[in-house]
Amino acid sequence: MEAALRRFLQNSLGDYVSGGLTVDASRFPLTLRDLRLNERKIQTEIDDDSGGATPFHLSGGCIGCVSVDVGWSGVEIRVTDVVLNLSFSPSRAVRWATGQREPKDAGDAEHASAEAAAPPPPAPSPVAP
Known about the structure:
3 strands
């Protein structure tokens, strides 16, 4: 049971916690405290799920406590005091709301903004026969 819980926690939380997890599953309830989140990994997941256009960027976060208790009917995992620090980008919010893709670099962003602001060119005049 201890090895299975250690592996489960490592596989489900390990990549999302900075510095990885050190799990001592020799006594219960098992308690992990003050876990700092891996912002880059979580932001990558957010971007993948949203197509890279979400107006939010994870700048930090932590989990205050993960408690694992084993009982007769199964395992209870309780996660408390989750803090996510998100920054908000109004320009990304507009692109997200309109379904536009995020430009690949800052130069593209300026170019895309200029194109969006410029009026369309006039339609060509018909030529008389």
